[in-house]
């Protein structure tokens, strides 16, 4: 069974992503290579998946690590100062030192939280990401964004802290609910649209295998997604040049869908799916692409039962207002990432409000 | 009146330190150059020095900044999660964005706390250090270490976050109590011993002018101290190569003196003064230097009324035990930074416990 490696080249902060399926034993050797001198590991795990943490912990112990575990309640609410303090306390009580490895076993919530604890304890501990959701495998585990939420805003408190390594075992997905899995596919499709027409075509050609979670297909799409994200991150590690913004394709719409739908209406990836279709239709309207490109996205998303339009009952005005509050807007202009052809997007701030409004009206 | 500039060369994180005396007007132009697009500034200030914050705030406002101020109670206890959360809340309430400048007006406590808030809000805000104690001018404002305390340890929670600029106006020292001022001189002398024999000789030759806070002399020693710290930081930004450890000359002893003396017995610089004499005597004992070098340090420190030995009533055993707990020790060996000649030190882990014990016995 092929095990894949994706390098992330960030000079002294470079690291490697390993992608395998059912190779729990491989973890410890991989981690050992990334952090040769580490002998203690704090395993931070989502409460829903103790069995995956067992596997990780057993393997680290067999390789000579002394381990401790902290279990975090599932869900976004755990990206809090309370859970962060709990991690700091456990590290301080041990006490951890700069060689102590923090291991995040879970989805984006665990990765963001444990990653931020690693970023801020003793001015930085090595971090091993072990993502267990499709979204965290293809997105949140790569790139170094860590953080927690503040009552005033999501991910408002945080730091850039690149992991020492990322260990992806697609077998962890076996327990992932279908809806979470499909939602993660929206971000996978996004990579195809923004950066890689061939990859998009691969997804079209193998949609059935992907949907039934064929291990070879999953490894392949996870690896390619990581590769594409790595290329972007390598060129704009700290979101300074603006290049990293292309990862936000579909997200200006998605964020207002998530807000208006309220917690629990749509998963993030579902909102991104509908958001991409809206952005693509906006690009059509602006004369950037033909209707066919939107149609291909719509068809592919539909094969994974992902939404392709906002809900008809959502009122337009608050959504438009929300777009102006998006942190990417500046000086009262709407900003969108729009495709110009399959595999290429651009940041546009010349889209009139009327155009965005029309898209929302005819979509819903 | 000469205004000095010290560059800190850290690639994309490079910045400039300005050293002047009574040039409040210069601040805004200097800050504008460092952060051209910033239009909001959060001024974080020590409660003891509102007048200095007034000056800073007025000048920033005159240069077009919208400002808010947070006043922090004086003292080490403010390096806490409670004060950190308060800063996060004010930033989130505003709301701050990535162009919002955080301005730290105070000593090391304010710099460390405000710096850590800047490091962790929106994954990093620009930071302007405006140090108002001698220690913060020559040490804590330069180098990017930020953080807060944890019940289990000082500076345990933190991040590396280089400032965008450092504005040093020695006129702020006019209000600084004598003891705080003299304590800061211990770190200044340290730079001479570890890196620059000529600078040490300058301090000997100008001790009287320094003691009466002659502005030219103060600017000169502050600038040279910053330069020397910058050189070290440039070669070991994140304390990875071990080079940065030379800044800890005298500190293995100092830390146990601070602990055994308890809060408030000695200021940090006072402990460092006695610690340097002990380390120097240890170097003599190891045959690294002659007695004359220790004597020169002792004489210079005494001219500033700094302690040159631990208090005689302090018991030896707990101090030795404390040295083994020092975070620089590894595998049960004591580690010291020891001089080999004036202007040069080395990290030694071959010092027998008996030697350290003897120094403490004969010193006190
Ligand atoms: N840092 C980044 O660059 C980045 C990028 C995108 C998203 N994020 C963050 O990621 C978070 C969303 O990530 P997510 O979608 O993985 O959410 P999540 O971590 O909440 O996981 C989703 C759900 O799946 C469960 N789960 C996780 N792994 C499982 C498994 N193997 N089997 C069964 N159940 C499992 C969890 O308990 C949870 O209920 C958000 O907080 C978002 O802000 C961060
Ligand atoms: N980040 C680093 O690299 C670094 C390096 C060394 C020390 N530190 C930290 O710095 C702190 C010590 O710094 P410090 O010695 O500046 O202490 P401090 O900030 O507590 O200031 C000392 C005292 O002086 C008062 N004060 C400050 N400026 C004044 C002024 N101009 N006039 C009158 N009073 C004034 C304060 O209210 C306080 O009581 C410690 O927390 C230490 O951990 C950090
Ligand atoms: Zn997303
Ligand atoms: Zn010191």
From TrEMBL, chains A, B:
EC number assigned by the record: 4.2.3.4
Entry annotated with the keyword Lyase: yes
One cellular component (GO) term of this entry: cytoplasm
Cofactor note (record): Binds 1 divalent metal cation per subunit. Can use either Co(2+) or Zn(2+).
PANTHER family (UniProt xref): 3-DEHYDROQUINATE SYNTHASE, 3-DEHYDROQUINATE SYNTHASE, CHLOROPLASTIC
Family recorded in the similarity comment: Belongs to the sugar phosphate cyclases superfamily. Dehydroquinate synthase family.
Protein name stated in the entry: 3-dehydroquinate synthase
Annotated source species: Tuwongella immobilis
């Amino acid at each position: 069974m092929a095990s894949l490696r994706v390098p992330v080249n960030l000079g002294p902060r470079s690291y490697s992503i390993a992608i395998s399926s059912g190779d729990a034993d491989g973890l410890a050797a991989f981690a050992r290579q990334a952090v040769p001198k580490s002998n203690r590991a704090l395993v931070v795990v989502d409460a829903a998946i103790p069995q995956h943490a067992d596997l990780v912990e057993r393997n680290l112990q067999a390789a000579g690590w002394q381990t401790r575990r902290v279990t975090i309640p599932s869900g976004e609410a755990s990206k809090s100062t309370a859970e962060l303090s709990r991690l700091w306390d456990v590290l301080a009580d041990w006490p951890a030192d700069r060689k102590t490895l923090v291991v995040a076993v879970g989805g984006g919530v665990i990765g963001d939280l444990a990653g931020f604890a690693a970023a801020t304890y003793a001015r930085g501990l090595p971090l091993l990401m072990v993502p267990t959701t499709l979204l965290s495998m293809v997105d949140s585990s790569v790139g170094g964004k860590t953080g927690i939420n503040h009552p005033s805003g999501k991910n408002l408190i945080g730091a850039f802290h690149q992991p020492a390594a990322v260990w992806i075992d697609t077998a962890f997905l076996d327990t992932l609910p279908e809806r979470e899995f499909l939602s993660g596919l929206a971000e996978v499709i996004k990579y195809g649209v923004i950066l890689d027409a061939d990859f998009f075509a691969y997804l079209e050609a193998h949609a059935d295998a992907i949907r039934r979670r064929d291990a070879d297909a999953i490894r392949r799409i996870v690896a390619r997604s990581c590769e594409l994200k790595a290329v972007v991150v390598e060129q704009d590690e700290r979101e300074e040049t603006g290049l990293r913004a292309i990862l936000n394709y579909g997200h200006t719409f998605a964020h207002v869908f998530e807000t208006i739908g309220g917690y629990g209406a749509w998963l993030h990836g579902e909102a991104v799916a509908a958001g991409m279709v809206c952005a693509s239709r906006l690009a059509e309207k602006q004369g950037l692409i033909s209707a066919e490109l939107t149609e291909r996205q719509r068809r592919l998303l539909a094969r994974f039962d992902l939404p392709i339009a906002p809900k008809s009952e959502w009122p337009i005005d608050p959504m438009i207002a929300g777009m102006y509050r998006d942190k990417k807007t500046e000086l009262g202009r709407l900003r969108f990432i729009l495709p110009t052809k399959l595999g290429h997007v651009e940041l546009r701030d010349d889209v009139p409000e009327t155009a965005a409004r029309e898209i929302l009206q005819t979509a819903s």
